[in-house]
Amino acid sequence: MASEAVQKILAAEAESNKKNAQARQRSEDMINKAKGDSSLAIQKKISEATAESGKMRSDYDAKLVEYTSKAEEDCQRELKIIAEKAAKNMDKAADAIISTYF
Question: What are phi and psi of 64, to 5 degrees?
C-alpha cells in the first residue's frame, strides 16, 4: 500500500516535471517566435526607411540641379546687364576723352 502511494507520488512528480518542461519549451518557443517576428518587423521598417530616404535624396538632388540651373541663368542674365552697362560707360568715356583732345 505504501509502495503504491510512493509510486503514485513519483508518477505525479514525473508528470509534473514533464508538464513543466513542456510549458517551458512552449514559453521559449513563443519568445523565440516573438524575437523573430520583431526582427523581421525591424528589418522591414529599416528597408522602408532606406527606400524613403533614397527617394527623398533623389528628389532633393533633382531640386538642387533645378535650383543650380536657375541660379546660373540668373547670374548670366545679371552679367550680361553689367557687361552692357560697362560697354556703354566705356563708349561714353572714350567719346569724352576723344572730344577733349580732338
Answer: -60, -45
pTM to 2 decimal places: 0.52
Q: What is the pLDDT of residue 97?
A: 80
DSSP letters spanning 14-58: HHHHHHHHHHHHHHHHHHHHHHHHHHHHHHHHHHHHHHHHHHHHH
Rg of the chain over all Cα atoms, to the nearest angstrom: 43
Give 41's Cβ-side CA count (13 Å radius).
6
Q: Which three cell numbers stand for residue 36?
A: 523573430
Among candidate residues 67, 89, 90, 86, the one with its CA nearest the CA of residue 78: 86
